[in-house]
Automatic annotation (TrEMBL):
MF term (GO), any: alpha-1,6-mannosyltransferase activity
Originating species: Dichotomopilus funicola
Protein name in UniProt: Glycosyltransferase
Disordered as annotated region, ranges: 48-67
Listed Pfam families: Anp1
InterPro entries according to UniProt: Mannan_Polymerase_Subunit, Nucleotide-diphossugar_trans
Family: Belongs to the ANP1/MMN9/VAN1 family.
Cell location: Golgi apparatus membrane
Length: 371
């Protein structure tokens, strides 16, 4: 018998399909009508709320009786933050800061060997938004994951902070020869100063006692460098940065000075500065601009005392231990000509004018990577 025109036969629905559809409807209703805040884990709430650099935001506030509790108020008494010649005995917190354009495995291996308690060390990094910076970021994250998540408890650092620069790098290449061309120094070091300041101001916490600046290409230091430098009780202290290399003449490994930014001023350098425009800078280590300063790089002695000090007017940033109070007093890295100095050398000048005389240790060496 023929069906009437226009009638439609309905296919019986599959029970499984109906069940899935009903579950989906319930999920959508819960999503639209449920609580606005996410169900964060208790551990995540505790971490966010306790970290001094990450105050709790709305999702992390605890509710009492259906009402959101007021955000907590943290109190810090800086008079209780000690900075002593015996930081280990006083459990003083150290902030280790590294601007990083390239990742050197030897750098990471070296900081892993530091015998200062890692639970008292916070690491801070800033990396440029370049292809090399992206590569360095990936390698850095691999080491961090291995150390912080998989490594033994004693190797894990108190916390690790990573920043990405929000400015374009002035130099495309980070090759050593390109970096050290005299014509590139002002723009290069201005960018480095901005990176250092961003890293410093974003990471310096109220419980920090010491700041250890360590460049990413410094691959060898004594494991006791923090204790060794802190025992001098100086506001700004620089070890001598050298470089190991293969000497073709002697057919043996040798070493040579590397960082020439640790220096004592000279009358000739001061006279050169007086003749310069306020926007010009003096740079060290170039024959085109002979300053005749006393360079700590050449002051090391074979039989010299390891902890012998010398006052400095300029410092480099390869390795530098700074009391946190020096930075809190306002000493930063000028990205502009400051008394014709810039970046770390300008920092030394600023520290000195704030009453913190920089010093160096000519016989205490750290070593730079040899490209």
């Amino acid at each position: 018998m023929a069906r009437p025109m226009g009638s439609v036969r309905l296919k019986k629905a599959n029970p499984v399909t109906l069940a899935i559809g009903a579950a989906l409807c319930l999920f959508i209703l819960y999503f639209l009508l449920g609580p606005a805040t996410s169900d964060f884990s208790a551990s995540r709430k505790a971490t966010a709320a306790s970290h001094p650099l990450s105050p709790p935001t709305s999702p992390f506030r605890k509710s009492t009786g259906g009402k959101l509790a007021a955000p907590p108020v943290a109190h810090y008494n800086l008079n209780n933050v000690t900075t002593t010649p015996t930081p280990l005995e006083n459990s003083e917190n150290v902030l280790l800061l590294t601007p990083m354009a390239r990742f050197y495995p030897e750098y990471w291996d070296n900081i892993m060997r530091l015998d200062y308690p890692h639970e008292l060390i916070t690491l801070g990094f800033i990396l440029p938004k370049t292809r090399e910076g992206n590569d360095a970021m990936r390698e850095l994250q691999k080491r961090i994951a291995k150390t912080q998540q998989q490594g033994p408890e004693k190797d894990r650092f108190k916390s690790i902070i990573i920043l990405r620069e929000d400015i374009d790098p002035p130099l495309v290449s980070q090759d050593e020869k390109e970096r050290h061309k005299m014509k590139n120094q002002k723009v290069r070091r201005s960018a480095m100063a901005k990176a250092r300041n961003s890293l410093l101001f974003s990471t310096l916490g109220p419980s920090t006692s010491w700041v250890l600046w360590l460049d990413a290409d410094v691959v060898e230091t004594p494991p006791t460098i923090i204790q060794d430098l802190a025992q001098h009780d100086q506001g700004v202290l620089a070890p001598n940065c050298y470089q190991r290399f293969w000497n073709e003449e002697t057919k043996a490994m040798d070493e040579r000075p590397y960082d020439f930014n640790n220096w004592q001023d000279s009358p000739i350098a001061l006279e050169l500065a007086q003749k310069m425009s306020p926007d010009d800078i003096l740079v060290e280590g170039y024959s085109e601009m002979a300053t005749y300063r006393t360079l700590m790089a050449y002051m090391a002695q074979e039989d010299g005392r390891l902890h012998e000090e010398m006052p400095l007017d300029g410092v480099g940033g390869a390795a530098l231990l700074v009391k946190a109070d020096v930075h809190r007093d306002g000493a930063m890295f000028p990205a502009f000509a400051f008394y014709n100095l810039i970046e770390t050398e300008g920092f030394a000048k600023m520290s000195k004018r704030l009453g913190w005389q920089p010093f160096g240790l000519p016989n205490y060496k750290v070593y730079h990577y040899n490209e």
